[in-house]
Amino acid sequence: MLGCACSCPARFTGGDRKYLYLNLSDTPENWELAQAKAQLIESDIRFERFDPTLKKYKSKTHLTVVETIKSKPELTLTKLFERYLEFKKPAVKPTTFHYLVTSIQAYINRYPTKVCARMMLCKYARGC
């Protein structure tokens, strides 16, 4: 384990020397981090803003539990078109709605069912 490269002088810590342990593995990157912490402490001592509790200098990384994102059921083109029909029904004439159901939906029903609706939306929205 890697400790901080410096100890805090006794006159700034109430008479006792203090050491800051970073609990990091011994790697070149972590040594750079330890040196940066030491420089920060030295700077704070010079500018009279040293924290004798050392809380300011301890690592602020905390592990948190992350929930996995559950995938939504795939939206097929047929289901998407059914939603579209529900949305459009109040806004279109009955003859237009009949055309959408009989002509367009019949065409969509013949389309391969494994195709994801998002893929179709992306394809036509971006002009790919």
Can you put this structure into words, describing what you see?
This protein is mainly α. The protein has 4 helices and 2 strands, in the order ββαααα. Strands 1-2 form a two-stranded antiparallel sheet. Helix 2 (77-88) runs antiparallel to helix 3. The chain starts with a strand and ends with a helix.
User: Helix and strand string, N-terminal first?
Assistant: EEHHHH
Main pleated sheet: 2 strands, antiparallel
- Tally the helices: 4
Instruction: Report the C-alpha radius of gyration, rounded.
Output: 32 Å
How far the N terminus sits from the C terminus, by CA atoms, comes to: 54 Å
Helix content: 40-55%
Mean pLDDT: 74
- In percent terms, what proportion of residues is strand? 5-15%
Outline: rod-shaped
Going across the biggest sheet, name each strand in turn: 1-2
Spans of 5+ residues with little confidence (pLDDT < 50)?
A: 1-8
